[in-house]
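Hey L., structure's done. Input below.
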Amino acid sequence: MTFDRQCSDRRLISCMMTSRKAIFSTGWAVIGISISIIVTSWPKFFTDHLWIMWISTSIGLLLVIIGFFMPKKNRRNLIQSVDAGNLVAGDNTGIQINRSNIIGDDALDKLLKTNSPRPTQSFSQSSKTTDIIPHLESNFQLINIIYNLGNSLWRETTQFEYDGKDAIVAWFNNPVPPKGSNGLNASQLSAHIKFSVAGQWSTEISRGYWLGYSENEITIDIGHKAGLILGMVDWTNWISYINPYTHSASEEFLQPACRNYGEMKRMPKTEMEIDVSLLSHGTTTIDQLKLLLTFPGGRPYVARIL
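Output:
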């Protein structure tokens, strides 16, 4: 006995088991509607012709009785009732599962998984590409920045502002992919920064500040870039701030409108190594940088990328 290929593999069994439930549910629905019309006397047409309601109620009751007495076919009974003892999968493979080889539900699952083709194999293989994380481009820039208390963020100073600080900003660009390739947005991106002098000391920033953002997690869409503030010069020290705010100031309705910047880490102005790790959703590292920072003439300078 050959089944229609619309009910392939396991779905052919579920297709044959829905009739009892459908008949049973339809019967109760017809009875419920008929009784509600009789009780509410609306619409008036049906209340003036009660014989229609009695007929519909009888039909609904008949469907309930039919559904109640229909056999409850499970997977094993359904298979054993197949004529001629063979179950032919409707997947155009010609693979037959002999009834004598089926001893239960687990056996059916095992045979279907083992013998049926895998149409999704090519899809799963194509998904295993290097495009599972965005590929960012980076460069560095010396910028004079100032903290905007009203917007609770660091921004670049204008030509009429003279109280800013010289800072090193790491720019991360999410380039437009070439034709035929897929790109990804770098979503919920946060930065971990570590400053160290070998064998002497190290300082870490758990969540760094992004230039122009009050939150410590941002999204860099394809074709856009964002600047991470590595640190800034404050007289004779090199300082960096921890941004404790996950959401922007405009989203924090219960917080003060003006946020003070987070905890400050102070370090001497000396040659140091900086390790930067970009994390997506706080768990997946999508990019890492290591650079050497020097201070020729007292100003910060990225000597080289390590």
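The chain is about 25% helix and 30% strand. The chain has a mean pLDDT of 76.

-- N.
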